[in-house]
Amino acid sequence: MLNLLAISGSLRAASTNSALVAALASNAPAGCRVTIYGGLGRLPIFNPDDEGERTPREAAELIDAVTGADGIIVSCPEYAHGVPGGLKNALDWLVSRDAAIAKPAMLAHASQRSLFARAALAEVMRTMSFALCEGGIEVALLGKKPPEVDGILAEPVSVLAMRNGLTAFAEFIRSR
């Protein structure tokens, strides 16, 4: 059983990115379990002086979750052509750790327009030595309200896209 950790880079209650990672967890193919990381908003701002024995509990929980996962899925919105600060902060807590080194990772997108954030996030994750799986998953949810989002994520074409993306990611992980 592959254990995948999904992280939404959005803290919004009605986040399409959070809805997407929840749908990924619900639609995981056989042999995969997707767990959602929910601590993004509780992480303190990264400070290298607080590493080691001084690592805050919330950061240690993130580090342990990433270390224990077979692969990471990240879905994030684009804010001002960039990666949201909360997600970047989470990644910063992993920089000096072994958790990211060669860890398989895949991006999932709820907006077809978030091209700047995608490029920035991919660059950050490659720099951190994540093994980034090309392709990823995209389900167009931009501008949709929660009932519409739920409907789109339940459509057979969306379910198939999510399962196919997760299956491709699982194959990527197993081939490493």
TrEMBL record:
Signal peptide: none
Gene Ontology MF, one: FMN binding
GO cellular component: cytosol
PANTHER family tied to this protein: CHROMATE REDUCTASE, NAD(P)H-DEPENDENT FMN REDUCTASE LOT6
Protein name stated in the entry: NAD(P)H-dependent oxidoreductase
Species in which this protein is naturally found: Mesorhizobium jarvisii
Taxonomic lineage from the root: Bacteria, Pseudomonadati, Pseudomonadota, Alphaproteobacteria, Hyphomicrobiales
